[in-house]
Amino acid sequence: MRLNDSATVNRSAVIPDRSRNGILWGLLGVAAFSLTVPLTRLAVGGLSPLFVGSGRAVLAAILAALALTLARQPLPQGKQWLRLGVIAAGIVFGFPLLSSMALASVPASHAAVVIALLPAATATAAVLRGHERPSRAFWRATAAGAVAAVGFALLQPGGMGSVGGADLLLFGAVLAGAIGYAEGGLLARELGAWQTVSWALVIAAPLMTVLMLVSVAQAPPSATALQWASFAYLGVVSMFLGFFAWYRGLAIGPMAQVSQIQLVQPVLSIIAAWLILGEALTLNTTLGAVAVILCATLAVRTRESS
Length: 306
Description:
By secondary structure, this protein is mostly helical. The protein is 73% helix and 0% strand. It has helices at residues 21-33, 36-43, 49-70, 80-103, 108-115, 118-130, 136-154, 165-191, 193-218, 225-252, 255-258, 265-277, 283-301. It starts with 20 loop residues before the first helix and ends in a 5-residue tail after the last helix.
């Protein structure tokens, strides 16, 4: 796509189209996101899922508004507002709320089963939206990685044995996240990485604030210090700082390849669940980690077809 086809005036790219640095930025984002599932599981143990899903977005939106104001960022233009709405619907509203509701009833390792599908979903969304043309080798590595990630998570205690209401919520979260990631990666080429997530948070803030107040009215928040610390991480890192790196990596791209780095995230999340929540860590985890990381490596090393 052209970088100025969604704006009322021409703008040069804020982030260059292609660079190996995209992989490194993507890895940094994935490292930040890897704690999201176990810490969400921890937070909803004392706070309502609606409060966790909406409140973390409000916290992040406050930081985003401050950053945009201090940096004196210009307003988005034209259709960029609509695209920011799509991003907000995916990563500010859809993924946090749906995953928080699901994690109120399933272990973190269970959630990793479905969320392991996010890289393949993001790659598909990137191809459809960004008109990228990955090679057949890329798709083979992507498919193998998705199978390895799902198979790995299924072998963990609490892995998905049947599809229930929580699984449907997680499938919805994956779809929302994939759309938000793909559109955000494209728009970050115009607005910049941190600016894109910041504007998405700001425009979603009124709705998320209303939802947070509703949750407080229904059940006043009461939690332990550790649960509040988990909530703070979700708002500051998972919803804000992590996207600085992740959207920059997707923007540098190639987006379909950078998205496959997230295949490593289920491994990191289950290890974090073991360390933080005491969920079992077995030999299958080590073997699965090797398989998933190998597939991710193969995917990011393949080149786009001409």
